[in-house]
Specification:
Elements (H helix, E strand, L loop, with lengths): L1 H27 L5 H11 L6 H10 L6 H13 L13 H5 L2 H31 L4 H15 L2 H15 L18 H39 L2 H8 L4 H20 L4 H6 L2 H6 L5 H11 L2 H29 L7
């Protein structure tokens, strides 16, 4: 086990190096960069921008050299845990990304949505598989298609229009009501929770489709196995066959898939956070991307890449735990 983990860590490190190089090259070859956007903004104000000023700006932001030079400079700093400062506000990137308010908001929305996703998707996937080609199965299939097909910006706006603008059940956007003094921590939490209902509902409904489809597919595969037919031939109750024998093995890919959810807990839902004006990590990263803030984009994506490779490693280890037949070599 130790040798396997050590080997995977070394491979993961090499993968992260490759990802960082590809990502940096892509960012440097974007059609516009932060400097060009800043020059355009200065020109719109009527300021005079000469070539010397432009060269000095590229030098100041470390973009004056070649792409290869820039990458190895970034890599050397990153290996020393120096990820630079944001081009936009000159704050340290690490403090920006790991800000408790930004990451806390994204984590809260993603964690709560994930819990509800599993509580809803797994039972629906099981009941669809056990009632294959019935009305129940077709209804679940329609829900799957809706969840997969609807874009988050459209569905989020739809929920806002219905539940916030027309029914006035929840706030339209933001994370708290402006100008309100809370009597205590409980009142503040209730107001915060009311603002989070629609964003979480958006994420849940748009996420359960894929989880339901995976559960249904795995359940159908298990139900067609030889040992399930043997269990039924022995005269076991159908509920015992489904929930004691079939469902337990259906959970194996679901449990191992939990590790793959780790990046999504911290990445933030970019579009959803923008629609509901949440100060989360996703909205912050989207703003950095549109403005070409390379230090922020590099650090944010490498953080997610690190979580991804660690999640894959954890998934492999969990698979060996839940299925003793699997051997790690």
């Amino acid at each position: 086990m130790f040798k396997y983990i050590l080997k995977r860590i070394i491979i993961s490190f090499l993968i992260l190096i490759g990802v960082s190089f590809i990502l940096y090259v892509l960012l440097r070859f974007m059609p516009t960069d932060f400097i060009e956007n800043k020059i355009i903004a200065l020109n719109q104000t009527g300021a005079t921008v000469n070539d010397e000023f432009i060269r000095q700006m590229y030098k100041t932001y470390g973009l004056d050299g070649s792409v290869i030079e820039g990458y190895f400079k970034w890599l050397g700093n990153a290996l020393r845990l120096d990820f630079g400062k944001s081009f936009i506000n000159q704050r340290e990137v690490v403090k920006e990304i790991f800000d408790p308010d930004k990451m806390g908001t994204s984590f809260f929305v993603a964690a709560v949505a994930t819990v509800f996703e599993f509580l809803i998707a797994i039972p629906l996937g099981v009941t669809a598989a056990t009632h294959q080609y019935s009305v129940r199965d077709y209804v679940v299939t329609v829900l799957v298609l809706i969840g997969i097909s609807l874009p988050s910006f459209f569905f989020g706006q739809l929920l806002k229009d219905i539940f916030a603008n027309k029914l006035h059940l929840f706030p339209v956007s933001g994370m708290k009501d402006a100008g309100i003094t809370y009597a205590g921590a409980w009142d503040a939490f209730v107001d915060y929770a009311r603002h989070m209902v629609l964003p979480i509902l958006t994420v849940v409904i748009l996420s359960i489709g894929a989880r339901m489809r995976m559960t249904r597919t795995n359940m159908l595969e298990v139900l067609n196995s030889d040992y399930i037919r043997t269990a039924r031939a022995k005269g076991l109750k159908e509920s015992s066959v489904i929930y004691k024998h079939a469902f337990r093995n259906t959970l194996i890919p679901i449990v191992t898939g939990l590790a793959g959810l780790i990046p999504s807990l911290f990445s933030g839902a970019m579009i959803t956070e923008s629609v509901f004006d949440l100060t989360g990590l996703g909205k912050f990263a989207l703003n950095a991307m549109t403005q070409g803030d390379i230090p922020v984009i590099m650090t944010y994506n490498m953080f997610l890449a690190f979580l991804s490779v660690m999640g894959v490693l954890l998934a492999d280890l969990m698979y060996a735990v839940v299925d003793p037949r699997v051997k790690l070599v």
